[in-house]
Amino acid sequence: MLLNDKSVVITGASRGIGRAAALECARQGANVVIGYSGSASSKSQVDELIREIEQLGRSAVAVGAPAEDAETGDKLVAAAVEHFGGVDVFVNNAGICPFHSFLDMPRETYLKTVDTNLNGAYFAVQAAARQMQRQGRGGAIIAVSSISALVGGGMQTHYTPTKAGLLSLMQSCAIALGPYGIRCNAVLPGTIETDINKDDLSDSEKRRYMEQRTPLGRLGNPEDLAGPIVFLASDMARYVTGASLLVDGGMYVNLQ
């Protein structure tokens, strides 16, 4: 029970990495605020997730608000304070990646990606940090960045800068928030099978290539991120801040 009685807020938690992290945090004793887009299609997924968390003996509440809105972080924090008495852990996971070529990138696609992945994240992290500072007992902030923060992608010129920005944000926040006992770290997933890349991985040839590029011989799944997130959230990582943890099956170091 690494997170026993902790209050955890996770954005983009209706599915994928966020959902897996929410379930693992609950297994480890936490109560969870589930941030999701607010869409009707996500609502049924969120309701099922809450049921699963309650079956684990923990509590969960959902906040439906777009990740790109600057006010969403305040809403998530308010829900955590109202239902669970505060915020101990904040996981910024929400993100989009509508693959598109660079030369004809629609301006609205670029702006939507940056607002969702980085600008909204900035203000959500700020809201969580302010609450942690008021509480006076420290806390942990984890951003789900990407291996794409370290490498380029021809169809991801709008996406990779946001993930590099998240990594940089955690490094700077580690310095800014360290005096308050607030630790800030990033996890960098490799190729994980989620809705964000479902269409891209439907190409069987590309899928085989990505599997062969990975020393562990398989693509990742959302549950592969849940353990590292819980570790960084827990007191086992009490002296870890400003760090980045690759969770990519070894893909990044496989240069041959």
TrEMBL record:
Q: What class of enzyme is it?
A: oxidoreductase
What are the recorded GO MF terms, alphabetically? oxidoreductase activity, acting on the CH-OH group of donors, NAD or NADP as acceptor; quinone binding
Question: Does this UniProt record's set of keywords contain Transport?
Answer: no
UniProt keyword terms in alphabetical order? NADP, Oxidoreductase, Rhamnose metabolism
Single GO BP term: rhamnose catabolic process
Cross-referenced Pfam families: adh_short_C2
Which domain of life does this protein belong to? Bacteria
Q: Give yes or no: UniProt keyword Nucleotide-binding.
A: no
- Stretches assigned to the Ketoreductase domain: 6-183
Q: Which residues form the signal peptide?
A: none
Associated pathway: Carbohydrate degradation; L-rhamnose degradation
Q: Which SUPFAM superfamilies match?
A: NAD(P)-binding Rossmann-fold domains (SSF51735)
Entry EC number(s) = 1.1.1.378
NCBIfam families for this protein: PRK07231.1
Q: Which PANTHER family match?
A: (3R)-3-HYDROXYACYL-COA DEHYDROGENASE, SHORT-CHAIN DEHYDROGENASES/REDUCTASES FAMILY MEMBER
The text of the family note is: Belongs to the short-chain dehydrogenases/reductases (SDR) family.
Q: What is this protein called?
A: L-rhamnose 1-dehydrogenase (NAD(P)(+))
Q: Which organism is it from?
A: Halomonas binhaiensis
